Amino acid sequence: MSTVPLVRCAGAARTYGSGATATVALQPTDCAVLPGARTALMGPSGSGKSTLLHLMGGLDDPTRGTVEWPAIGTRAALRPGPVATVFQGPSLLPPLTVAENVALPLALVDVGPAEARDRALAALEQLGLTALADKLPDELSGGQAQRVAVARALIGAPVLILADEPTGQLDRFHGTLVVDALLHAAERTGAALVVATHDETVADRFDACWRMRDGLLSTEVARCSS
Q: Which residue would you say has higher pLDDT here, 34 or 142?
């Protein structure tokens, strides 16, 4: 397995606002995600987990330090494809069918409608969701919608999947299905997976555990149950 990081943060920090109203969301952070990693990012709400994932995914810029993607290339190369993000809560576009939502990332590249649908159906089939292809998001349960979001993340064959509290709004049964889908997808494709969660039972399913509190990251914990 390659030891070249997919993403590396060097002193990366993020502050929102300025002056007396400034909020430090992430204090200077050093970390790296290697190919094939299975990492749970633990911490309470407001601890900085989402901020770190957004920096890793190139969705936001650090106010200090750097974020680089040595094994992928420049930030412009991150998507669609190499880096995929699964957000907490509903992220599907209501007017589009499930298949159209899953195919949406392919609209950013030169993929024709027929091929895009075929690839969307293949991604849905991997997660056992083919029967939902022509349904609208408001016809889905919360668990189904989150698994569709996972299918959309996979359509570009990512090497790094970042999931931000994907079970946070689901009951235990549907949350387990979503985590199952993420782990199986990562195993099947070889992608690295980082999942932010405050749920110990979710975190215990991962190989390594990072913990966050008040914007500070610790990567010293080998297992979340330690």
A: 34
Distance CA 162, CA 88 (A): 11
- DSSP class of 106: G
Place of tokens 């089939």: 125
pLDDT band at 223 (very low <50, low <70, confident <90, very high): low
Interval 178-194: pLDDT, tens: 898 899 889 988 999 99
The alpha carbon of 149 is separated from its chain's Cα centroid by a whole number of angstroms, namely 10
Tokens at residue 45, please? 């709400």
What is the domain partition of the chain in residue ranges?
A: 35-59+75-218
Q: Read off φ and ψ for residue 75, nearest 5 degrees.
A: -60, -35
Superfamily for domain range 35-59+75-218:
P-loop containing nucleotide triphosphate hydrolases (3.40.50.300)
Q: Which residue has the tokens 């569709």?
A: 148
- What's the CA gap between 225 and 86, in Å, rounded? 24
**Measured on CA atoms in the order 106, 108, 113, 115, is the torsion positive or negative?**
negative
Q: What is the pTM of this model?
A: 0.89
